[in-house]
Automatic annotation (TrEMBL):
InterPro entries reported for this sequence: Peptide/Ni-bd, SBP_5, SBP_5_dom
Protein's name in the database: ABC-type transporter, periplasmic subunit
Signal peptide extent: 1-21
Listed GO biological process terms: peptide transport
Alphabetical keyword list: Signal, Transport
Length: 583
């Protein structure tokens, strides 16, 4: 899973132009397709407010495990396996041409395609894949200089026995226990984004030194190590908190870009981004919910409310050293139930998202519909009822003193660490604060930029926050088979909240087991249903999403085409190499 926020969702466009909604007098369902392509032009993509890519090595650290980093990194590097909009392996666009496996799902043979090469003309080899896996494995260890954000997803690293090269174009992966191949291909093998070992393998006999080197250049995209790529673009230049400029890779093995440049642009806030859309300095951006009433002013744009595969939530700190002694109480289900009963999802959907969101009752949102979406969880299991939430607290010994619930000298009064720079998120935070106050739960909102919220929340000592929300939850990447191993399993890398439940652990493990399609789906749904009931997180409505870090409604210029039709709703990736302008 990747951290996604209202201010951090990558371009969540659906592939059907028929889903486009009108915006102003210029909007039609045909505006995003057709026309005669004009070679050249610059696509300017608005990032979410106060959000910057900060990790350019495609194996992301836990602190940098966000959609915006994946979206920017995908300009330069390709994953080993690509998935289509039906969540199936797309061999035509993958670095592998074939995957075979044994009956128990413990041995996988991957044959590399010859279609894609590194930009220096060298082939992508099995040795590159093995090196990349070794980085992932080492960064998943307890004493690594940085922690890989995907640790715990796809059995990384404990289920993997070995990754070896059989010649230059075949990789053999062995596991130590029987596994559901569908799950492992999606969530295990799907995590590998190869890098050229000839460029990156600086310390062949000292992996900790290698990891330290990677960390030292992770946010230095102009370093020479980024010169050799296999993606559609090279990075040309960047200016921190300003823009990141990409130009086409002439040796790309796939569909080559006819755009001259693609620029990811930093935004100070919603109003600045909206002004850029109006003036045309941004041609691929988002309509902030706060500007919903002014949408008709964007007469040269098309509006596209869409959903990507994921879910929305905030976390409470269940770690023992949470401030104010609240960790053990947040660890009690009834406290989390009371918090969930204070979430007025219908009001948030109406007032904050203007109807462009869906209610959420579990760890896979009801939109978009996939085979992995449990239809019984379309609505919350704990609907809005602050009176009932307050009674639940009182039934467990809490009593109200000056408007705040107390028990054993502990107060349900704490700091809510929340994302800044997005008016919709500010409005959502205020609604939550007011509704929780009805239950005697007092929160003090402390807004910080997205990167700060993530880095603070993921600190292992967990002593600086009680509640955190980076503004929109997660998208399922790289766990395209949406199990909770990377987020809810005990000790998972992205389990910042310190949640631990043996039943959850067993259900997650069961979803990894091989079986018939009916059996494996039933196991996945059992996990989803328990996650809905046991509330490892507090669920919030799932909003329609927008481009490259902006979880808001997509806006793009009527002259810019291919943005919607080429978007992959499963992997949450944009493909500017298919975009083009018309006169």
């Amino acid at each position: 899973m990747k951290h996604r926020t209202m201010a951090v969702a990558s371009a969540a466009l659906l592939g059907s132009a028929a889903l486009l909604a009108g915006c102003g007098g210029s909007s039609t369902t045909t505006a995003s397709t057709g026309g005669t392509p004009v070679k050249g032009g610059t696509a300017v993509i608005a990032l979410a407010p106060q959000t910057s890519p900060n990790w350019f090595f495609p194996i992301l650290s836990a602190a940098a495990f966000s959609d915006v980093n994946t979206q920017v990194d995908s300009m330069m590097y390709r994953p080993l396996i690509m998935f289509n909009n039906q969540d199936q392996v797309d061999y035509a666009r993958s670095l592998v041409s074939n995957i075979s496996y044994n009956a128990t799902g413990t041995r996988y043979v991957l044959t590399l395609s010859s279609k894609y090469k590194w930009s220096n003309g060298q082939p992508i080899t099995a040795q590159d894949v093995v090196f990349t896996w070794n980085v992932m494995k080492a960064a998943s260890g307890s004493n690594a200089p940085w922690t890989y954000g995907g640790a715990g997803i796809g059995g990384v690293p404990t289920r993997w026995t070995s990754v070896t090269a059989n010649g230059s174009n075949q990789v053999i992966v062995t596991l130590n226990q029987a596994s559901n191949p569908n799950w492992f291909i999606h969530n295990g093998l799907g995590q590998i984004w190869p890098v050229p070992a000839s460029v990156w393998d600086k310390y062949p006999t000292n992996m900790n030194q290698e990891l330290s080197f990677i960390q030292s250049v992770a946010n230095s995209p102009m370093n020479a190590v980024y010169d050799v790529v296999d993606g559609a673009y090279h990075i040309q230049s960047f200016s921190p908190n300003n823009q990141w400029v990409f130009v086409p890779n002439p040796n790309f093995g796939g569909h080559k870009s006819i755009l001259n440049k693609v620029i990811f642009q930093y935004e100070t806030g919603d109003s600045a981004e909206f002004a850029g859309l109006k003036t045309g300095t941004i041609n691929f951006g988002y309509l902030p919910p706060s500007e919903w009433g002014a949408r008709n002013e964007l007469t040269g744009d098309v509006l596209a409310p869409t959903y990507d595969l994921g879910f929305n939530y905030l976390i409470v700190n269940m770690n023992p050293h949470a401030p104010g002694g609240l960790g053990p109480y947040f660890n009690q289900l009834y406290v989390r139930q009371a918090l969930e009963m204070g979430v007025d999802q219908p009001a948030i959907i109406s007032a904050v998202f203007h109807g462009q969101a869906v209610p959420e009752g579990g760890p896979v949102a009801s939109q978009p519909k996939t085979a992995f979406t449990d239809p019984s969880l379309d609505n919350p299991l704990y609907p809005y009822n602050p009176a009932a939430g307050k009674k639940l607290l009182e039934a467990h010994g809490w009593h109200e003193v000056n408007g705040v619930m107390e028990k054993n000298g502990v107060k349900l009064a704490f700091t809510f660490l929340a994302v800044s720079g997005d008016q919709a998120q500010t409005d959502l935070q205020q609604i939550l604060k007011q509704d929780w106050a009805q239950e005697g739960i007092q929160v003090t909102i402390e807004q910080q930029p997205f990167d700060n919220v993530i880095s603070t929340a993921q600190q292992s000592n967990a002593t600086k926050w009680d509640m955190a929300d980076w503004g929109g939850g997660w998208t399922y990447q790289p766990d395209y088979y949406p199990t909770g191993g990377g987020l809810f399993a005990t000790g998972a890398a992205s389990n910042f909240q310190g949640y631990s439940n043996p039943t959850m652990d067993q259900l997650i493990k069961a979803s990894y087991l091989p079986g018939t399609p009916h059996q494996t789906l039933a196991a996945l749904f059992k996990y989803e249903e328990f996650a809905a009931k046991n509330l490892p997180v507090i669920y919030l409505p799932w909003p329609a999403a927008g481009p490259a870090g902006a979880g808001a409604l997509i806006e793009h210029a009527t002259s810019l085409h291919g943005t919607v039709s080429t978007f992959n709703v499963i992997t949450d990736m944009i493909f500017p190499n298919y975009w083009y302008f018309t006169k």
